[in-house]
Structure formats: C-alpha cells, structure tokens
Design a protein that fits this description.
Layout (H helix, E strand, L loop, with lengths): L1 E2 L1 H4 L16 E2 L38 E7 L4 E6 L4 E5 H6 L7 E2 L4 E2 L14 E4 L4 E5 L5 E5 H6 L4 H12 L14 E3 H6 L1 H13 L2 E5 L7 H7 L12 E4 L15 E4 L11 E8 L3 E2 L2 E5 H11 L1 H9 L2 E8 L3 E8 L2 E3 L5 E4 L14 H18 L5 E4 L6 E5 L3 E5 L2 E2 L7 E7 L1 H15 L1
Parallel strand pairs: 11-12
Antiparallel strand pairs: 1-2, 3-4, 4-5, 6-7, 8-9, 9-10, 12-23, 13-26, 14-24, 15-23, 15-26, 16-25, 17-22, 17-24, 18-19, 20-21
Helix pairs in contact: 6-11, 8-9, 8-10, 9-10
C-alpha cells in the first residue's frame, strides 16, 4: 500500500512546497489512531523510503442550526442541526461561557464572569435560533447570551465531538515505528521562512516523534535560531544551549567519547524537557553514530510480552540524581516512574537514564529484585535490532525529537585534534511547541 507523509501527519500535510516534497512512502498497514492500549494495540507504522515533509492544509466544516429548545427538567438545551443531528448543552455550562463583552474578554479569549457570580442552578427564560443561525438565550436575570453555531458544534458533549476537540487541541494520535522507519526530513531554511513547512515539521514531530533537518550552517547558534521559530529555549543547569564534546573531567557522560546507552534526557528534573534539538557542527573521524528507539512502541511491546514487568515500571517510583557545575552548580533529585501512563492507561512518557539513575532506591526490600527484573526486560527489548534506527549526522544536520517519547543513544567515537566531534544541543518544552503549532495552523488556514 502506498501513501504520502500527509497520511502520517494527518490532517496537516496535503500540498507540497518544493519539487522534492511529498514523495511516496510505504506502510505495513493503514495508519490508525492510538486506541486504548488494553483493548486495541496501536498500529505500527513502518515508514520506508525518503520522506520529505510537505505543506499543510485543513478543511473547515460548516454547520447551521435548525431548531433549539430548553429541556427544563433535565436543565439542558437541545440543538437540532440542519444535517439532522442533535446535541445537548447544560444550562450552567452555557451561562458560564457566555461570549458577550461583560462575561468574556475577547481580546484575550478569557472569562470575566466570576465563579462567585455564577448561578449554577440557573434556568432559562427564552431560547431560540436567530435568522443568522446563532443560539440566543435570555436568562432569568434578563442577561442575553448568543452563541455561534460553529463554536457550539466544536464543543458538543458527545463522545465523538469531545475526542475530536481533544485531537485538534493536542494532536494525541501517535504513529509507532520500528527499525524500518526512515526519519522524516525537512529543509532547515524552509522551516525558518515558510509557515507551511514549519507546521508540517511540528506536526510530524508530534506524530512520529522525530524529524531530521538538513541544510543548516555548520556553526554554533542555529539551535537557538530554530528555537526562535517556536518561542524560546528551555534554560537548564547546562545553559540555554550546550556543547556536546569530549571534555576532561566531564560533568556528564555525554561529554565523553564512550558509548551512550539509550536514554531520555534529564529525568533528574521533575519536569523534564519535552523536545530536544541536536545540531552537528563537526563529526568524529570514526564512530559516533546515533541510535533512536520509539519508547512508546517498545513500552507497548513490553505490556504485551511481559505484563508484570510493564506494571512494575508503570507503578514504582525510581530515584534520579544529577550533581555538578555548569551554567551554575546543581544538585538535583527526582522520583519518576520509568513508564508514565495517563488515566486511560495509555503510555505518555518514558523516564530512563541509566547514568543518572540514583544508587538510592526507595523501595521495600521485596520490590527490589522485581524492579531490576522489569527494568532489565525493558532494556533488553529496546536494544533489539528490529526496534532501533541508526543514523550518522553530518555537519549541518539538525535532529529534532520528542524527549518524552524517544530513547536516544550514541556509539563510541574517535576524534582527532583536527576533527573533534562537536554537537550543539538545546531543549524546549511541549507547551511552547504546541502553542506555535496551533498558531501556525491558524495562520496557514
């Protein structure tokens, strides 16, 4: 079956911005959204061949209301749509979200109505559909609220509408992958200057978890420039940006030439950075190949193959530490679950760094051996060749990836005085990345 990256980053990637964009790629199966892991395993998407990000477009539906009535006993407004569907809206929610200038500051899209002034038992005097298909409500205190049809439709309380709204807000769908992945690729200059290219980049980063950028100058400062396209850098104890080079008396194992095992960055922080940029300025004479694994995909594999180990890593808190001096001196401590799941039992974050896993293990004695067994099972799984993607960065390449999802590592390398391996790194948080994605989506629309 053939598709394009548009199908991967659905619904964002539709039209191409360059002659090399939107080349076809193959899937093992038709990609589907991630469903509840206890009932349906998320589809594994195997992306083969060169993938160059295309541009973005979104369709906008149009809705109009036919009729509305108040169901006083249930305290609901029933809206009937021209397409024949119906939706129900609670009285209290409608009053709380009145869009008039007294109740909402439109310039900030912020509520002015105080909770202390909200009558949560309010009734309705009059409800009607206006000639321009708006919902008009007169409340018992004679205050009037008017709601646009599109605004109401998007905020329907039906399960389908709620899921669609959450997907629009957060892009919750993920596409899992294994060693067959060919990392989505974009042009650095296009990202900086083309909103459609930047949107395609961020959507792919969210869906797939990693995007490779080509064409940046091989000099310091370009991870910061790329971050400015989004918002601002995340300052950590290693600075706004940091230089990955072999250092004497290194304060981090990344600053050595040895092998780096697969890990996520900074679990020693209670709120680890969500996104990481790495820019290759010079590559080593030998070695230094990068490795990445889809932590969500492998966590689901562990759930299927060893449910007990998955439960252990998703419930027990593990201590992480990081101590040293860089941007300033630091002595960090945190407690994390190796695998974080949400209320729906879906994997949402991986927290694992063997270098900073503390010798302090705050567990009862009877849980120590089960923890080690579970962690060993997961590490063995992420190291399977069929789960790992390897690549070697060249000067000017920038890799951007989801630090809450991907485990990344590096093979050992040999540098020479005239060719010292040098990568510049930076962090951002998902809050500002998703903010820029939504802004770009509106701009492209």
């Amino acid at each position: 079956m053939l598709s394009t990256l548009a199908r991967v980053t659905r619904p964002a990637l539709q039209r191409c911005t360059s002659s090399v964009a939107c080349q076809t790629i193959k899937f093992c199966r038709r990609p589907q959204k991630v469903s509840h892991p206890s009932s349906v395993h998320p589809t594994l998407v195997q992306l083969r061949g060169q993938q160059t990000l295309g541009s973005s477009s979104f369709s906008v539906a149009s809705h109009s209301m036919r009729h509305a009535r108040a169901l006083d006993e249930e305290r609901l407004v029933e809206v009937e749509w021209e397409d024949g569907g119906q939706n129900l809206y609670p009285f209290t929610w409608l009053r709380d979200n009145c869009q008039c200038s007294l109740c909402t500051l439109q310039s900030a899209q912020a509520r002015k109505l105080l909770m202390s002034d909200l009558d949560i038992h309010t009734g309705i005097n009059v409800v009607e559909v206006t000639n321009d298909s708006k919902l008009s409500i007169v409340w018992p205190d004679q205050h009037t609220s008017v709601f646009d049809a599109e605004w109401l439709k998007k905020r329907s309380f039906s399960p389908e509408a709620r899921e669609a709204m959450q997907e629009e807000l957060f892009l919750n769908e993920r596409y899992y992958w294994d060693s067959k992945l060919r990392i989505p690729t974009a042009d650095y200059q296009d990202i900086l200057h083309d909103d459609k290219a930047a949107l395609a980049w961020l959507v792919a980063l969210r869906r797939v978890g990693i995007v490779y950028l080509k064409g940046a100058p091989a000099e310091q400062g370009h991870v910061a420039r790329l971050a400015e396209r989004i918002g601002y850098l995340r300052l950590t104890f290693y600075g706004h940006t940091w230089q990955v080079v072999d250092k004497y008396n290194a304060n981090n194992v990344a600053y050595t030439s040895g092998n780096l095992s697969l890990h996520t960055d900074y679990p020693a922080l209670h709120f680890a950075p969500g996104v990481q940029f790495l820019h290759c300025i010079t590559q080593a004479k030998e070695g230094g190949d990068s490795e990445v694994v889809d932590g969500f995909h492998t966590a689901e594999q562990l759930r299927r193959e060893d449910p007990e180990a998955f439960h252990t890593l998703a419930t027990l808190l593990v201590d992480f530490t990081d101590t040293g001096t860089d941007y300033c001196d630091f002595m960090l401590q945190s407690k994390k679950r190796i695998i974080d799941v949400n209320e729906q039992d879906q994997v949402v974050r991986i927290n694992y760094n063997n270098a900073t896993r503390d010798s302090v293990l705050d567990l009862p004695l009877h849980q120590v051996q089960p923890f080690y067994r579970a962690l060993k099972a997961y590490v063995n799984l992420i190291k399977r060749p069929e789960n790992m993607v390897s690549y070697k960065m060249e000067p000017g390449d920038i890799v951007t990836f989801d630090n809450w999802r991907l485990l990344h590592g590096r093979k050992s390398y040999v540098s020479t005085p005239d060719k010292v391996r040098h990568l510049e790194g930076a962090y951002l948080d998902w809050d500002e990345v998703m903010s820029r994605l939504r802004i770009l989506r509106n701009a492209v629309n």
